[in-house]
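Render WG containing repeat-containing protein in 3D.
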Amino acid sequence: MLSFTLSMKKYTSLVIFICVALCCYSLKGASQEHKKLFYFLSPDSLLGVKDEKGTIVIPATHYFLPIAYDDFRLPINDSILILVPKRTFNLKDPKPYGLAYNRNGKVLYAPYLFDNGPDFLEEGLSRYVENDKIGFVNRYGEKVIKAQWDWVSPFEYGIARACNGCFIDYSKDAEHPSLDLSKANTYYIDKNGRVIQALQKKQSKHDQTIDSIFLPYQFSYSPFESNLLKKLNDLDLISKAHFANYYNRLTEEEKQLHFEIVEKPSNDFPYYIINAFRYDADGAYRKADNPDLLFYATEIGDIYQIPYGNLEEKVPLKEWLSNYDAEARRYLKEHPDAPNRYK
């Protein structure tokens, strides 16, 4: 039986499901309606949302996780509010995590349950559940790819892996279940939900390799966007500092990060989001496993490093790189046997 391990925590019981009772999407930079919203608790400790005049926007019919909010006097800044209603849950895969509401109290979609919480944005898209199938919504809660798969991965390098006839197998390890593909039809899809046709061989060095399958490069840019990326791709110091603490010796190609714009500006979100990708010896480009390597760029070309996506803490690229280099050099000084040293 062919199966692939998923990085998912145990959530097979109803108790665990409802204990992760509440989460909200923080969409920094997205437009907010002018009215202020606040969470409130009913006498029986269920959670709802009201406006500054006390008008109930979302009824108090949702579970409340006390550690989620320290002070209900503070207004809600999120564009999308994800709450878990107190009602019978669907425990069949794919599992939803509550409901996503807009600031007017309208239900937008049911987020996909991932890692004991709602699925998070990857490359501008997150997964949702509808009619026991999975699709994708954008950062505004708009359904941009129809729910049509039994399972689909988050997007990485502009590509997601999807399957029908597959299922999550809890039989051997309920905490870290695997994806059973033994009777499945599998696909690779682009950000429009279209199936990507595999290549006979790589036609560009930036084509992707997944499971020994070659897939065409998914990104295209205007001259301005290409120059924006060139600023980062030409900064070899980012790559050198990033790989300084890798314990294994890397080839020159593996030590070179590659940057791509994974989300472009819109009317309500005026930033380019840029991710760093590392190249593996198997020919695959994978998202760099470091939250520091997340960059936002403005439409006039200013680039900032954004700690964990928090725009309020944005750091100009030059300042961030100086600090990043200093940290890497401290590490190399403390570890004289580090194999990926630089001058």
